[in-house]
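Exercise 7. Given the components listed, write out the predicted structure of the assembled complex. Treat all entries as one system.
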Amino acid sequence: MRLDVQGIVKRFGAVTALNGVDLAVEEGEFLTILGPSGSGKTTLLKAVAGFEVPDAGTVRLGDRDVTTAPARHRNVGMVFQNYALFPHMTVAENLAFPLEMRGTGKAAIARRVAEALALVELGGYAERLPRQLSGGQQQRVALARAIIFDPSLLLLDEPFGALDRKLRESLQLEVRRLQRRLKLTTLFITHDQEEALVMSDRIAVMDQGRIQQLGTPGEIYDFPVTRFVANFIGESNLIEATAQGGRVSVPGFGTMTLPEAPAPGPVTLLLRPEALRLGAEAGAAACHATATVLESVFLGLSVKLRLQPEGAPEMLARLPLRPSDPPPAAEGSTITIGFRPEDVHVVPRG
Amino acid sequence: MSRILGRRPLLLAGGGLAGLAHPAIVGAQTTPPKPDRIVVNASGGAMNSIFRRSYFAAFEREHGIRVVDTSPVDFGKLRAMVESGNPEWTCTEIGGQDAVRAKEMNLLEPIDASVVDRSDYPDIARDSHILTASAYSTALGYRTDVFRDGSQPKGWAEFWDVRRFPGPRSLRNHPADNLEFALLADGVPMDQIYPIDLDRAFRSLDRIRPHITVWWSTGAQPAQLLVDREVVLASGWNGRFYELTRRGAPVATDFTGGSLKSGAFAIPRGTRQAYWGQRFLSVMTRPELQAIYTTEMGYPGLNRRTMDHVPAELHPLMCTAPENLEKQFWLNVDWWTANAAMAQERWNRWMLRR
Amino acid sequence: MSSPAARRERALLLMGLPALLLLGVLFAWPVLRLLSMSVEDGSLEHLQRAVLDDLYLAVLFDSLKIAGFVTVICLVIAYPLAFWLSRASKIGLALGMFALLLPFWTSVLVRTYAWMVLLGRSGVINRMLRDWGLIESPLPLLHNLGGVLIGMVHVLLPYMVLPIYAALLRIDPDLPRAAEGLGAPRSAIFRRVILPLSLPGVAAGCALVFVLSLGFFITPALLGGGRVIMIAMLIEQQVRELLDWPFAAALSVVLLAVTLAIYAAINRLTKGARLAS
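Answer.
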């Protein structure tokens, strides 16, 4: 079901947690709220789930206004950070709980519990208590409990935070598969940008109680609209430059003409580390400089370089590696670096 | 070497030897070294503060030894202390009926007549191991605003007469005194109470039982119950009522049929400072000090000259005043020593019956 | 070679050793003395009397009944109170705890007198009822079983409230939230989630209050007006007044055995609940 949030404001004393949030999640869409802690994303989730009533604004589920409806009347499934499985109930009892609350018959409950367990591949675990399960298994029980009653909306509150990396990655894919298969409208909360990029149809980046940017992972990555978004998503080189008469001059690197000329005055350019060129390729670029390699970090499939260009602040570069490639530059050596106008994105001010 | 005081508990451990060994020790002696303190155990509360002003102060002044007071009086603890071989108490008060038993159970040091002079005491108060410190009575307390101008019940037959003397009453939750009162109420003459006819006593108690609102268990209770008008008649230690009368509360005492007893002090056997215990008991026999205690507590000391030092207007309030003495009887300690356990068990059974 | 788990267990045991020693000296030893005293001279006579005599049986039964009443009344009062405290503001919590623990700081005599002022024949409550014309003659609120129950509940309430309060605090606040999100109304959240998860606290509180109740003797003596006899009162009588220590020991042994049996029963009943949390 479509979720439509409009103009939500929530204050706690002097602190404004949500400062006018507008957001729409389309039916069947997986939308991620990405932001650092304190950005307001958890408060937004609580307002949607029904655990907080906003001071202003509306929350609509489908064509129903649920702004002040209690959580139990919203039909929203939620997976909590620590799963919030009932410790005194077996896995099957946990799953049956929402169905019992809806007055589902005994036989139907048994059938649906079995189906849900099969769906999350925990067929043999019905009679276990939560503390007899591993973290990943608990997480899948929590997911099964959140979807067993056909919720209008699925909320995921940093559900992978407590898991180790490998398990996290496999569960991320599993959740995504499940969500697609069941066409669940999903709102996912995380502070992990990688997770957001992997899983989402669209991402809303939040900071200071507002949504800073809403778009597909590609849009957010390639065309961040604020320095905050540019910094928060992926690694970035933010270059301060000056625009004048259709050209942009970059201190230490020279001048270049951008495909779309920015307004005259100071501009911030975003250059992703993988777009920085090195060596001969760099010398041919419009903007280039000589730089010292401060640090070279081997990352398996790539190498990350920390560079000090002459007359400009430090920059990062990331170069793909094939197994047989020699290291591109030794620490302490001097190389030429540069970039092309089409690889640079002008970050709007404000 | 047997004269070393510290050896005495060892020598006495044989029990039977005690009587033999003792006179030899106190006979020819020099004063033992002074401890920095002795411990006197008594009932506590107001009593200990009066003790401090009278006996404790005199003892401390004369001997330069501090007196530490503890409470409450506890027969079980006395026995445990003596049996463990190192009593903490130098002297202790002992409840009236318990003194004889304590002596029989060999829990007490004999009193050294050369230190404790009781020539001014009546003969009955010169026990070999027990210093009879004062007399007290379980008497009938009443509200003077309910029973005006001498209209209070006089004696237990009238206390039992709920039609003539209506109102809630209180008696002690204990067989001692009550069995005697029950017999008196049933018409037994005062001199024929003992040996107690238990069946008759409990039959008599059956009659008053529905009219007792509170069976009290601590000495403070009957006084408080009268002050709060929780009851209008109560048995109680006469000193508790005396205190209320002196403070101007509408409470007075009727001694008719009162049960006289004596408060006793003694030295626990084997206490390290036994000599100073004797010294302390000797201080307790002085009439002018007894008078302070008598005046404050209403429990007269037994030295014949004590009353000379007590204001004359207080004499009629004392249980030992001649006109009061003749209305009361002395509780028979021997009977109680022999029958306490049996009487208590029967009392418990009777209380439990609903 | 010992596993890390075994080593940790040994370290824990070592840390608990001082406490165990203290318990051993201050508790186990006297209890053993008591046991041996009750069979003095190798005779079972005292124990037989304690177990078979209808007086002591009746008093023991009464004591268990009173302890049961006190436990149930405490539970009924304590649970809502603990629930409220677990959700109270800082000030509410401080005030509530103060009021709750106040009886610990007053002597039994002061407490008893306070109850007399309140509940006596001419006490505050009876006077009020009379002034309002609701009663003709004062109600007997004290010096009976009711008085004893009031006095004992007053003192023992904290022993019930605190374990329940602690158990309620230990419940993850996301659990009731999750239950609500899954569609549970308030009553179901309480019945299905909060109540079962607080049961270990309830069990601890009940065991504490029940066992402590059995040992009461001053409060029932003062507030019962002599009409209420508890087993501890008879033990005290035997120890302090009649000096029949072997029989006192025999009564104590019977009381101890009954107490342990009931404690074990409570433990067993709530084992499931404790396992789950």
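Discussion: The longest helix of chain C spans residues 4-38. Residues 33 and 249 of chain C are 9 Å apart (CA to CA).
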